[in-house]
Design brief:
The complex is a heterodimer of chains A (438) and B (299). With 438 residues, chain A is of the alpha/beta class. Helices cover 46% and strands 13% of the residues of chain A. A two-stranded antiparallel sheet of chain B has the order 1-2. Classes of the chains: A alpha/beta (438), B mainly alpha (299). At the A-B interface, helix 1, helix 3, helix 19 and helix 20 of A face helix 1 and helix 12 of B. Chain B: It is found in: Cell membrane.
Chain lengths: 438, 299
């Protein structure tokens, strides 16, 4: 009886079992690697991250020939945030991953998903400024990769020289420069890039204005987090939206702002087709990747506010490497983290990628001959005129800001309307995080 | 040795109409249940929770209240209707005309039929990216061609008033092949006797179309309307590939609003959005389907 060739009933049952097993398997993890000497690291697709991580991986593999470091690329922006959250949630994260510090990290529920590195010996040399950006409570989660970043305006040095302009220290002076550039003809005063995948670049007028907001309202970040102050009812905070509306209405934007992409915007700045580009300084790494000489043609100044005597810069922390709790071989992952958080680590980065700002690891030296924009960035640090961006002071950051600022820059929505719309957007994030008072 | 107990009746009485046992449904049922029914029911539950990395907390109807207070949701709803009705309507009209044309005696009929059907076979995202390049306001082929004849082309995808319509046109270009195919099948199925009788009565080509082809194509029309309207109302991929709902929120539809909320990590909220979209499509399509099919029976 049992040797009889399988009946249709049994065949169907077998098929069902195989299918069910297959379904169960597809839900399983494929990400981690277990002790065969390969270290998988997930990172975003930007040129800057890619080159820094490649430099670190190469140097580490040279020092440890028996280890293979494999870099896996994911999209950036909100699509990338989604991938990181989903893979963490399903236990499908590779051994290590590179991700933003600040509010985006807080949205990953680090207490449940990441390994606390506070007690690791190699964390001693990581500066406290950085640790604050990758902490939740007493736990510290990330090891910095890359340099301090400033948010402000990258500008074309040749155009400034030609028109005899000076670096503006107030918003009015900035607008006067824009007027002069427009009157001279030939170049757009301000570059904006709202094309494919580049809408995030529209946020800089708002986000990089945080130094000026804090100068006017020192308790802004705490009150904002506690739902006591909002963009719409805080004039200093709403100013960012108004500035964007002003440059748009004055006709200072490049004509193709609606379709230009981030990389095309950088190329236009280098070529002198536009003179100002509100941007983060890590764009310099991006420019260097396509045209190493071009970095020397650019200058940088912080987004100016109302007070010329207090012209300071909003700063961003670089991203960090995080260790998910799901990683099986914690020791080899930690060994790589120890390498990244050492002077060997930053020397490896310096050797392959231009230094665009100070490191967050003690003992890491910045070379003497840096490009002009980096020297200007450094001068804000030296003078102590810096303040962190809001996303490092508050876990609350609304996801729709980039669409809102695109609408303001394009003249679809007014600055007042945009500020109150963003306040609504922020509310959802705060509720999702379960914050008090929302 | 003799057996005492009589053999149990092995054959159970079966419904004579049923040729196969029920458990033949099982493999398909497992796949359908795991991939469709369970997630659907789960999403109805999660729509009532605030769901994040730490777990799901039951919050009642709060997500629905929040979803409907989204300032751009109303715009998204309007856009969804405009998009669905526009693409569906154009597919019906163009599909019918193309089908009548492609069933008449013309040169290279087979070739032209495949040309019309071809866009249906191409990946939606591929089409989206291609047209994004073609519709670029400065560098795109379309505006370059218009400039060559002295017309300043608009920003097809960057003008807030135009973006949704540009995407809808591409959707029609891509989807009209399927509508045409359904209509061709319908036209071919019309018995030639009607046309012969009409010829005897001296009917013109237009009268043929108006009094024979159109009424006898009602089943095909019902199919095309139902398929294209459902497709249009839940359309997402082409819009996302071309504008991501932009510039700003101007070409957002319900599905892209839902997707953005999901991306932002508001999983409960986006589940609520999906429930709303499900009910919306059902509320529109069930009566429409019923009405279209009833007419078909009555004629």
């Amino acid at each position: 009886m049992f040797s009889k060739p399988s009946t249709p009933r049994r065949a169907a049952a077998t098929a069902t079992a195989v299918l069910t097993a297959g379904l169960a398997l597809t839900g399983c993890s494929t990400g981690g690697d277990d002790g065969d000497g390969t270290l998988n690291i997930l990172m975003d697709n930007s040129e800057a991250t890619g080159r820094l991580m490649q430099a670190l991986a190469d140097a580490y593999m040279e020092a440890n020939p028996d280890v293979k470091v494999e870099l896996e690329i994911r999209p950036g922006g909100s699509e990338g945030d989604n991938i990181v959250k989903t893979r963490l949630q399903t236990g499908d994260m590779p051994d290590l991953f590179f991700y933003n510090s600040g509010s985006l990290l807080q949205a990953l529920a680090p207490g449940q998903t990441l390994v606390d590195l506070a007690g690791e010996p190699y964390m001693d040399v990581v500066t406290d400024t950085f640790k604050e950006g990758v902490s939740a409570g007493d736990a510290v989660y990330g090891v910095p990769v890359g340099h301090a970043i400033g948010g402000g305006v990258l500008y074309n040095l040749a155009a400034y020289e030609e028109l005899g302009l000076e670096v503006p220290t107030t918003w009015d002076a900035f607008m006067a420069n824009n007027r002069a550039i427009l009157d001279a003809g030939g170049a757009a005063p301000v570059i904006q890039t709202y094309g494919t995948e580049s809408a995030w670049t529209s946020q800089l007028f708002v986000l990089a204005d945080n130094y000026n907001v804090l100068a006017a309202e020192p308790d802004w970040a705490e009150e904002f987090t506690a739902n006591e102050a909002h963009f719409a009812d805080t004039p200093a905070a709403a100013a960012g939206f108004e500035h964007l509306q002003e440059v748009g209405e004055a006709g200072f934007l490049n004509e193709d702002f609606a379709s230009l992409t981030y990389n095309e915007g950088l190329a236009a700045l280098v070529a002198g087709e536009g003179v100002h580009y509100p941007m983060l300084t890590n764009a310099l790494t991006e420019i260097e990747a396509t045209d190493p000489e071009a970095v020397d043609d650019l200058g940088f100044f912080a987004l100016p506010g109302t007070d010329a005597a207090n012209h300071g810069m909003t700063t961003w922390l670089p991203g960090a490497l995080y260790l998910p709790q799901s990683t099986e071989d914690q020791d080899s992952a930690k060994d790589f983290l120890a390498f990244v958080a050492s002077t060997e680590g930053c020397d490896a980065q310096t050797a392959d990628v231009s230094v665009i700002g100070p490191y967050f690891i003690e003992g890491c030296a910045v070379p003497e001959d840096v490009p002009p924009a980096v020297a200007q960035l450094q001068s804000y640090f030296d003078a102590g005129l810096t303040a962190p961006a809001l996303e490092f002071l508050s876990p609350v950051k609304g996801p729709a800001l980039e669409q809102i600022t695109v609408e303001v820059g394009s003249g679809i929505r007014t600055a007042d309307d945009a500020a109150s719309l963003y306040d609504e957007d922020v509310k959802k994030q705060a509720q999702q995080l379960g914050l008090e008072g929302w | 040795m003799t057996t005492t107990a009589p053999p149990a009746p092995r054959q159970r009485r079966r419904d004579p109409r049923r040729h196969y046992p029920m458990w033949f449904y099982l493999p398909a049922g497992v796949v359908y249940g795991t991939l469709f029914i369970v997630p659907t029911i789960a999403s109805f539950y999660f729509a009532f929770t605030r769901w994040n990395m730490t777990g799901a907390e039951f919050i009642g109807l709060e997500n629905f209240a929040l979803f409907f207070s989204e300032p751009y949701l109303f715009q998204g709803l309007v856009n969804t209707f405009v998009y669905g009705v526009l693409t569906s309507g154009l597919k019906v009209v163009l599909g019918l005309l193309l089908a009548v044309f492609l069933t008449s005696q013309i040169i290279a009929r087979g070739y032209l039929r495949s040309v019309v059907f071809f866009p249906t076979l191409v990946s939606v995202v591929g089409v989206g990216i291609t047209f994004t390049v073609l519709m670029d306001p400065e560098e795109g082929l379309i505006n370059r061609a218009l400039a060559a004849v002295g017309i300043a082309g608009p920003g097809w995808l960057t003008d807030p008033d135009l973006a949704l319509f540009s995407v809808a046109l591409v959707d029609v270009w891509k989807g009209v092949g399927l509508a045409t195919l359904i209509y061709i099948a319908g036209v071919v199925a019309i018995p030639q006797e009607y046309f012969e009788a009409a010829r005897v009565d001296g009917a013109t080509a237009f009268q043929n179309l108006r009094y024979i082809t159109l009424p006898l194509l009602r089943p095909a029309t019902a199919t095309v309307i139902v398929l294209s309207l459902i497709g249009g109302l839940r359309s997402f991929d082409l819009i996302w590939a071309m504008t991501q709902g932009g510039p700003g929120f101007t070409s957002d539809v319900v599905a892209s609003v839902i997707f953005k909320q999901y991306q932002a990590g508001f999983w409960g909220l986006s589940s609520a959005g999906n429930v709303v979209l499900f009910l919306l499509v059902a509320a529109l399509m069930v009566p429409l389907y019923w009405k279209l099919n009833r007419k078909e029976v009555e004629q």
